Amino acid sequence: MTRLSTTKSSHSTPWLSRIVTLGTGSEIAGLLMLLAVVVLVFSLATDRFLTVPTFTSVAFQLPELGLLTLAMLIPILSGGLNLAITFTANICGLVLAWVLQANGGVEAGMPAFLLGGLAAVAVGALIGWVMGAAIAYTGAHPILVSLSMMIFLRGLGEFATRGGDISGFPDFVGMLGHGWFAGIPMPLWILIACVALWHLILNKTRLGLTIYMAGSNIEATRYSGIDTKRTIMLVYTLSGLMCGIAGILMLARFNSVRVGHGEAYLLITVLACFLGRVDPFGGFGRALPVALALLILQVISSGLNLLGANQHLATAMWGAFLIAVMVVRHIWAGRSVRRT
Amino acid sequence: MLLELRNVSKVFGGVRALQSVSFDVAPGEVLCLAGENGCGKSTLIKIISGVYRPEPGAEMLFDGKPMEGLTPGMARSLGIQVIWQDLALFPEMTVAENIAFERNLGGRPRLVDYGAMRKIAAEMLERLGVGIDLDTPVRELSIAQRQIVAICRALIAETRLVFMDEPTASLSQSETDALLAIVRRLSADGIAVVFVSHRLAEVLEVCSRVTVLRDGRYVGTFPTEGMTQTRLTELMTGQTFDQDVRAADRTANPVVLEVEGLTRRGDYQDVSLTVRRGEVVGITGRLGAGRTELALSLFGMTRPDAGTIKLNGQPLRLRSNRDAIDAGIAYVSEDRLSLGLVQPQSIADNTVIPVLDRLLGPARLLSERKKSTLVGEWIKRLAVKIGRPEDPVNTLSGGNQQRIVLAKWLATEPKVLILDSPTVGVDVGARAGIFAIVHKLAEEGMAILLISDEIPEVYFNCDRILHMRDGRLIDEYLPGTVPMGRIESQVHA
Questions:
Q1: What's the pLDDT tens digit per position in A93-129?
Q2: Which residue of chain B is at minimal alpha-carbon distance from A20?
Q3: Same domain? B401 vs B473
Q4: Poorest-confidence range of A217-226, A237-246, B173-182, B444-453?
Q5: Is B174 within 8 Å of B182 (Cβ atoms)?
Q6: Yes or no, beta carbons of A12 and B357 under 8 Å apart
Q7: Which among A143, B140, B369, B431 is most buried, taking Cβ atoms within 10 Å?
Q8: pLDDT above 90 for B443
Q9: What are the counts of helices (DSSP H) followed by strands (DSSP E) for chain B?
Q10: Is A17 at the interface with chain B, CB within 8 A?
């Protein structure tokens, strides 16, 4: 962190205290405005934008990135990072795939799927727990620990699959990735449930409050009688668990599992968190603004797609958009600080 | 006069930080700039060093010549240097590199001349009569040594006026004495030193005059001869304080905390003490005597190698501070900034963090209602001045932050409260408020252990004073029966 002023404590950059004072209300209002602007721009650009197919494409594509972003969110709030999220999701998908194949492949029944799903989530949680324990007990930096885990999982996954795809699952699994329920695509239901769960954990539980406190100052939190080692382990366990759910969804959407799938999402999840006003140094940020930020990114991507833009150009636009947001936010912050 | 200021004002966003302040410094003089936190001392220094512009109408003369449109660079070339409390050294660089750093500034790129840097650094240290290894990285130095490195750096230029912001805040008495000797040496060399300090005793000792600011206004400049600490405190706060010894014999009360033969190798040895119901026991001694280390073991943060800790007669086995908290022991850390409070988080969250279990409502979820009730209750009981409970805790003044720390620990309903240097960074005026709370807690029956290296603090607030040196309790004094000066000379001997 740069020292902006000698009289201030090093913890309080003005940028940071602004996030605190703005509160959740105006965070969400700002992002809703941004969403409205993005929607407006695309509706003016093409009359095919404000249509049901656009909504459908957003609703089906958003959840994968969304679940992985939730998996990234909690470690960032705790002052860390989990770089292993995409490969954890792949490994969890593999676990489910193996359970299904061992139980008849295309012929596998619902019990096999439930068992496999449970195993996938459990493996995700276990991977997270191992990282959490390493970070909490050795004091190693989360980037190093999760990077090591990422490389381990990638190697392990590629070794196990020989770099190929695993496919051939029962039809009802596809329902999870492509089906509808009550007029809303299934993947979106899953994302909504997971955002709600994360919101509940972060805002309404002892663990949630502890995560924010530890993210700001882990020693002071420990001095307050909190078992911060346990907190850190739970943070990464939850992150791994969410990767498990993401892995199951990815399997259902593509009807196959390949190690390396979704790899490009990794850094996007970090950026989605920051766009959703999560403090990169930990301690501040909420689940709902992050969900809104994801929605904005997906609308941009789908809108550009409609305009016939190249897929790679869409990725470039994401990056440009995020930089623009940071700059605008900085200028805005400068003004409001001067005004007070 | 070297520096003469008249009618200097500064407004920040409608708030008057300074109101037509006068200030002058004679060549080679040691002057004290005194006042509580937020009185405008830092603002004044920043104006003199060119960081801020004063409001129009200000008159600022240096060597009789007006200083107009002053920038930090100009101030430095005039020979004005400021050593801020955080020193702004480069921890990974060596002593020599830090001292001779300015040599390397400039527009044109050129190679670093380590030989010349070492030579300059060695000369500077020589001039102050201090020996510090030139090649040691600054992070390995003690705070006192870092202070000296910062002074050397400030003297590199043709310095004529040095501001020192709280230079002794983290120094022990002997280190302070050494620093004051250096200040006198500078003064003898014709360099004027403006001292900003909370420690009134040393202010009166080293300075010839003291300029007092209060709420951004100029109170006056007074000779230190004939000035007393009490009078100075009154000038700074605008209030009068009567300090009485409140010590009483509480041997009739039951023992709450009983420590016997407690030893942790390298930290403290064979410590035995008791604290009774309603008793305030002070532990004093120099920095590094093992006071904080002892407190951390009583709070379950570290494990003693031998000895017992009993609470109300029951032996305790503390595996973590959670065990200590559950048993009824609370610890107010000496380091409020990085250990006492989770700084940028909210006042409310900081208050409830040790007692989250008590906030659980239906389905074991945190209840907002229970939280705001608890926070509101403590803010009211300790009369904490806050904006909203959701505000970041670092928006509060030092004194109010310390009240939040107390609130947080009192919420755990402790039987024993350990206060480790509770008034560090707290204004003189606010200190009295903190101790009023402590006395009230003692009257209500709490057993209190007060750790402080400020003798007056333990003398006027404790029933008994234990003297710790090199990890051992070596003496016990009863305030009132022993004069304060004697304890001071014992501790600093």
A1: 999 999 999 988 788 888 999 999 999 999 999 999 9
A2: B392
A3: yes
A4: B173-182
A5: no
A6: no
A7: B431
A8: yes
A9: 16, 20
A10: yes
